[in-house]
Amino acid sequence: MGQKIAKRHADKGVCLYRQRLFKEALTEFEIACRKLDKNDDLFAVLNYMCLVYMDLGRYHDVLVCAKRQAVASERLEQKSLQLEATFNMARAYERLGEYRTSIALCNRCLVTGKPPEMSPLSGYTHLCLGDNFYGLSDVKKSLKHYDRSSHVARVLCDSVLECRVYLGLGQVFESLQDHVTALQHFSRASEIARQFTADHPCEKLQRRVDVELAVVYGKLGRVAEALEICEVRIAHARCSSGSSCN
């Protein structure tokens, strides 16, 4: 009976997460975690909690959940889950600026875990490595891993991964003051992000792309285009908050 109740809380949390009601979703997930005694169910709920905390920018909490996942996956003795927990830890450390720790964990996924080369885990791990090396200002290695991630994204037709790769590439070229090339990558990221519907978990990527586009347009002296993006984004934010959208 207790497990059925826990799963109901977990299912409700998933629905709330898809509605972008993060705080409410966390409440349901936390209740589920306290009641679940099967490690595979617990791992799945913790994975959703990692996603919520990433969206909220609470990266220390992502790390805590990922470490709990690692314990659960060890009990299950499932290699694929162990790799997923390791990757979640790597993502958290990258966002916390612990780039070398994140790189070590990414390498553990790729070298020790040996996931299939054309798999989501491989693609996102290379993306994480690209982000880490960008953080360390190692442009050559950053571009190498973004290129590998891009290849996986194209093979798997993973539009979210592809969008994130173009964002990363845009940032790299922006840091090199190559604004024209940066604009090309950000524009491609924008084309992909516009395909995500309002209820898509990664719809938020369009907002991030718009910020990058506005900045690079400004640096290129294309002020009118930068202003237009900002005005559209402000109008969209007002609509989302319930203001009149006529």
TrEMBL record:
<dbReference type="Pfam" id="PF13424">
    <property type="entry name" value="TPR_12"/>
</dbReference>
<dbReference type="InterPro" id="IPR019568">
    <property type="entry name" value="Rapsyn_myristoylation/link_N"/>
</dbReference>
<dbReference type="InterPro" id="IPR019734">
    <property type="entry name" value="TPR_rpt"/>
</dbReference>
<dbReference type="GO" id="GO:1900075">
    <property type="term" value="P:positive regulation of neuromuscular synaptic transmission"/>
</dbReference>
<dbReference type="Pfam" id="PF10579">
    <property type="entry name" value="Rapsyn_N"/>
</dbReference>
<dbReference type="GO" id="GO:0031594">
    <property type="term" value="C:neuromuscular junction"/>
</dbReference>
<dbReference type="GO" id="GO:0007271">
    <property type="term" value="P:synaptic transmission, cholinergic"/>
</dbReference>
<dbReference type="GO" id="GO:0005886">
    <property type="term" value="C:plasma membrane"/>
</dbReference>
<dbReference type="GO" id="GO:0033130">
    <property type="term" value="F:acetylcholine receptor binding"/>
</dbReference>
<dbReference type="InterPro" id="IPR011990">
    <property type="entry name" value="TPR-like_helical_dom_sf"/>
</dbReference>
<dbReference type="GO" id="GO:0043495">
    <property type="term" value="F:protein-membrane adaptor activity"/>
</dbReference>
<protein>
    <recommendedName>
        <fullName>Rapsyn myristoylation/linker region N-terminal domain-containing protein</fullName>
    </recommendedName>
</protein>
<dbReference type="InterPro" id="IPR052480">
    <property type="entry name" value="RAPsyn"/>
</dbReference>
<dbReference type="Pfam" id="PF13176">
    <property type="entry name" value="TPR_7"/>
</dbReference>
<feature type="domain" description="Rapsyn myristoylation/linker region N-terminal">
    <location>
        <begin position="1"/>
        <end position="78"/>
    </location>
</feature>
